[in-house]
Amino acid sequence: MQKENWYSLNQPEEVISPSLLVYPDRIQHNIELMISMIGDVTRLRPHVKTYKNADIINMQMARGITKFKCATIAEAELLGDCNAPDVLLAMQPIGPNAKRFVELMKKYPNSKFSTLVDNTKTLSILGELAKSNDIKISLWVDINNGMNRTGIIPDNDASELYSQLHQNLNLIAEGLHVYDGHLRNSNPVTRENECNSAFDAVLALQKTIINQNIPSPKIVAGGSPTFPFHSKRLNVEASPGTTLLWDSGYGSQFPEMKFLPAAVLFTRILSKPTTGILCFDLGHKSIAPEMPFPRIEFLDLKHSKQISQSEEHLVVEYDDLTIPEVGDVHYAIPKHICPTVVKYDTLTVIKNNAVIDHWKVSARTQKSTI
């Protein structure tokens, strides 16, 4: 798995650049590592936003993973197409997405769908939709335990919101959803302490709800950085996502987690415009551009410095002028894999240094059929 040049192609001549290569053996390693860390596969709810692909979903289902999380209706539809038993849409449905969510439930009756709510207005809208369609909608109350992006603060207002959800005859109260993506300290001890501290308020809210004679709410918690800690909580579902493909950003920040990079950018030198400068065909359209440089980690090009990027081009300073030539192939791990995958229609599948298949990135848009 860690052999030298595990990423390289024996015959790269027919592979277009840029391409995004994926390595099923490494994906399988990451799946097994997730399962071993949590111990109980029924408490795993991986997020599909990173890869948006049926083949990787099916790899997980083959290992007994039945619960998934997603961010868009298109991703939820992909999971429905895969016959995933339990799907949480972890984006509060607003505007037309509320009706689309109901259409999703009707299209895939063999999958259980649920979603999030963090305010009484959305709760009322979803309740009325459920009533008019003669269905029950399953909801999780989205909790803000410090990230300040979505959710409701775990205080009395959250308790009241959950009580209203429980009392609504058209809705089903599933539990509490907690995403703590702001906790990214590279020191695992510090990160665990911060995770536990932020989670205390969630546990207190759970107790408050129970004291109101409401059934104990289930909890879905965390992302990839806090997965090692939430996986220890016996009554909590953990929801990592980046763990499936990994990237150089998390790999350098959280090396103790031992996940393997399973997606590699395949690129070529497009030009050598002047001394000490190389230009690659890896522009904004081919890799997530929101990160500061370096946006990739070259696997086979040492002593390089990324200095600029535009729509189609990545410009790099390089101090060895004797080796690179125009057209030469190179390989790099993206710093942020999730928004990089969405830039590709297909993933080029590699086994034993050869192309064996192409996997469709089916849910890369906001809408599939619903």
Automatic annotation (TrEMBL):
Pfam families named among the record's database cross-references: Ala_racemase_N, D-ser_dehydrat
GO biological processes: D-serine catabolic process
CDD domains: PLPDE_III_D-TA
UniProt entry tagged with the keyword Lyase: yes
Record keywords, A-Z: Lyase
All copies of domain D-serine dehydratase-like, residue ranges: 262-351
Listed GO MF terms: D-serine ammonia-lyase activity
Gene3D superfamilies assigned to the protein according to its UniProt record, in alphabetical order: Alanine racemase (3.20.20.10), D-serine dehydratase-like domain (2.40.37.20)
Similarity comment text for this entry: Belongs to the DSD1 family.
Protein name from the UniProt record: D-serine deaminase, pyridoxal phosphate-dependent
